[in-house]
Structure formats: C-alpha cells, structure tokens
Amino acid sequence: MLRSLVGSEMCIRDRVSTQSTGEVFGLRMAVRQTAIGAACWVPVAIAFHDHCFAIRTVNSAAMQPSLQPGEMVAEGPPDRVLLDKISARKNWLYRGDAVIMSSPVSPGSSYATRIVGLEGDWVQPSTRQGLVHVPKGHCWVQHDNMENDQSDSNDFGPVALALVSARVSGVVWPYARISRAHDPNISSDRIVIFSHSSSP
C-alpha cells in the first residue's frame, strides 16, 4: 500500500515537472520567435524612415507662423511635422511647398523653408531690385518669417533641387495645430513671370 502511494506521488511529480518544462520551453520559443520577428522588421523601419516618411520636430523660427518651434509656443509642445521624402526624391515639388533642404552655404546643416519659384520663373527678390531667373534643376526658396536671420535665396540665389531632402506634408502634432504645410498663394506676390513648363 505504501509503495503504491509513493509510486503514485512520483508519477504526479514527474508529470508536473514535464509539464512545467514544456511550458518554459514553449515560453522561450515564443519569446525567441517574437525577437526574431522584431529584428526582421528593424531594417524595414529604418529604410521607411530614411527613404519614405518621417516625423521631425520644428526647431527653427524661420517658418513662423506656419511651423512653430518650441520656444515660440506659449503652451504645449513644438510642432511635429510629417516629412515626405519620396516627393523630394522624385522631384514632385510645387510652388508653395514647405520643404527640408540642406544648406548650400553650411555643409551638414539643414532647415525648413518654402519653395517660391521653380525653374524658368523670374523672381523679384525681397531684399533687392531686379529680377532673378531660376535656372533648370533649381528653385527659389524663401522663409515665411522674413524677420528671421537664417539665409534663403534672397542671400544665396536659386538652389539646386537636389538639396531638397523632403517635402513637409503638414503639422501632425499638437492636435490643435494639425494642418497642411502647402500654401498655394505664397508665390503670387513674389514671382513676376511664371514659366510655362512648371506647374504652379
């Protein structure tokens, strides 16, 4: 009788031990598969961020009031904007588009500005007399905030479209400021002659 009870207890222990080992093994496999799956998506996420779309925080007052940096907002966080890198790479850019471009005078730095003129346009600079022709493969950029001391085409002239790294689709946060960044009327008082080959 005693031997029978001892044997039964050992069988129960073996079953519990086997079940526990199986559960631990299953949990480890699930964690491993999840980690492998996540690792596989990391390159995809990086490629998407680098070549398709990204979110960026506004850190300059050059594009006020369209884009607000943190120090200029009385309450709440600075504007966060959605960047469309595909449009920039394909040159799907239009007058009035807010863009991110590399500085032609300060290598390694980039900032937000707005395309005012495209190739073939004749532009009246805001800081001097006379007209400037925008050559092929170039654009004329100007900040919304003309009191800002950051340079634009009024200082260095037309810039190569290759320097544009992204089109700013719009503000996505904070909620109260969600809006498109494109301004279709921005060029009306700055371009004297529109080219026939470029879309306004």
Explain what you see:
- With 200 residues, the chain is of the alpha+beta class.
- 30% of the residues lie in helices and 25% in strands.
- It has helices at 2-51, 85-89, 153-156, and strands at 53-57, 80-84, 98-102, 110-118, 122-123, 132-133, 138-142, 159-160, 164-173, 179-180, 191-193.
- The strands form two sheets. Strands 1, 2, 3, 4, 7, 8, 9 and 10 form an eight-stranded antiparallel β-sheet that branches.
- It is elongated and about 85 Å long.
- Residues 1-10 and 44-50 have low confidence and may be disordered.
Mean pLDDT: 78
Contiguous helical run count? 3
Estimated helix fraction:
25-40%
Flag low-confidence runs: 1-10, 44-50
How would the global form be characterised?
A: elongated
How does the helix and strand content classify structurally?
alpha+beta
Counting DSSP E segments of at least 2 residues, the number of strands comes to 11
User: Termini, distance in Å?
Assistant: 97 Å
How are helices and strands ordered from N to C? HEEHEEEEEHEEEE
Tell me about the largest β-sheet: 8 strands, antiparallel
| Rg over CA atoms | 29 Å
β-strand percent reads: 25-35%
Strand and helix map with partners:
Blueprint lengths: L1 H50 L1 E5 L22 E5 H5 L8 E5 L7 E9 L3 E2 L8 E2 L4 E5 L10 H4 L2 E2 L3 E10 L5 E2 L10 E3 L7
Antiparallel strand pairs: 1-2, 2-9, 3-4, 3-9, 4-7, 5-6, 5-11, 7-8, 9-10
